[in-house]
Amino acid sequence: MGSLMPRPARNRLVFAGAGRVHLIIGLIGTRSGLKALSEAEVIMRMFFGMILGCLLTIAAVYIHDSMAVSAPNGMSAGTSNMIVNWNVAAREWGRIEETVHTAWSKLQAVNSRPSKKGEA
Predict the structure, then answer these.
(1) Where do the structural domains in the chain lie, given as residue ranges?
(2) CA distances in angstroms from 23 to 37, 43, 95, listed in the order given
(3) Which among 4, 58, 73, 102 could disulfide-bond with 17, CB atoms 3.0 to 4.6 Å apart, if both were Cys?
(4) Given a cut of 60, is residue 47 above it in pLDDT?
């Protein structure tokens, strides 16, 4: 009961002993069977999946909005079916760029000052 015995559970390998879970390792399929992933690999794959999901969502919204704006015969379809107000999004993105640029400039100014460690 005290030894760690691996038990496959759906897409994870759970090592349980003495009534509690000790380690969870993700598994991926290979030709020769299942390969255990380290905890860091599982976290990185999850993080990459979140970033990819955000990018796909933004792309889908952009495609939807570009189709909602364009109408046949050159007539305006209106903005009632748009998900995002792209003018506001562009303005906010500009503010973010300006804030980051200002912070970067301040950081460079602080780092370019001479060090006072040599002074007594």
Answers:
(1) 5-37, 60-110
(2) 12, 14, 45
(3) 4
(4) yes
